[in-house]
Amino acid sequence: MAPITVMLDTNAYTAFKLGHADALAIIQRAPSLVLSSIVIGELLAGFAVGSREAQNRTELQQFLASPRVSIRSIDDHTAQYYARVYRSLKHKGKPIPTNDMWIAASALQAGCALFSFDGHFQHIDGLVVGASATDLLLT
Questions:
Q1: pTM higher than the cut 0.90
Q2: Are 120 and 96 in contact (CB under 8 A)?
Q3: Which of 41, 66, 111, 136 could form a disulfide with 130 if both were Cys (CB 3.0 to 4.6 A apart)?
Q4: Do residues 133 and 29 make contact, with C-beta atoms less than 8 angstroms apart?
Q5: Rounded to whole angstroms, how far apart are CA atoms 113 and 115?
Q6: How far is CA 8 from the centre of its chain?
Q7: Cβ atoms within 10 A of the Cβ of 80, count?
């Protein structure tokens, strides 16, 4: 099996920082990790209204400095994936938050599995998503 690149959802990064066992296992086992610029924006927004903004920003920068971690920015190609995700969910009657559609579109574009605790990602066709190392085939 080819190595799996894992994109982290916002709640996955948060779980990792809180020492959640599944998050730690995935982050240790995945050969490479990706954060969407949307996730970084959500994290920074949360930091800005929290009491540990400077510390959280520093820890995020340290995480992003790892050679196993990369950032995926949104571009016009991502927008095409977003439109497909939006259309599919609308036809299914399964709306999800807008930022999550962008995160899913970014994961689909990059060919990444998505690590998230949000079950609504399961409604997105073609997206490999899970909340454990087993779900993401990292065992």
A1: yes
A2: yes
A3: 136
A4: yes
A5: 7
A6: 3
A7: 13
- Asked whether 128 and 114 are in contact (CB, 8 A), the reply is yes
Distance CA 3, CA 111 (A): 11
**Domains of the chain, CATH where assigned:** 5-130 (3.40.50.1010)
Give me the chain's average pLDDT, please.
95
DSSP state of 3: P
Residue 4: the pLDDT is 84
**Separation of alpha carbons 64 and 68, rounded Å:** 8
Question: Annotated binding residues for Mg(2+), as ranges?
Answer: 9, 100
Q: What angle do CA 21, 128, 74 make, to 5 degrees?
A: 100
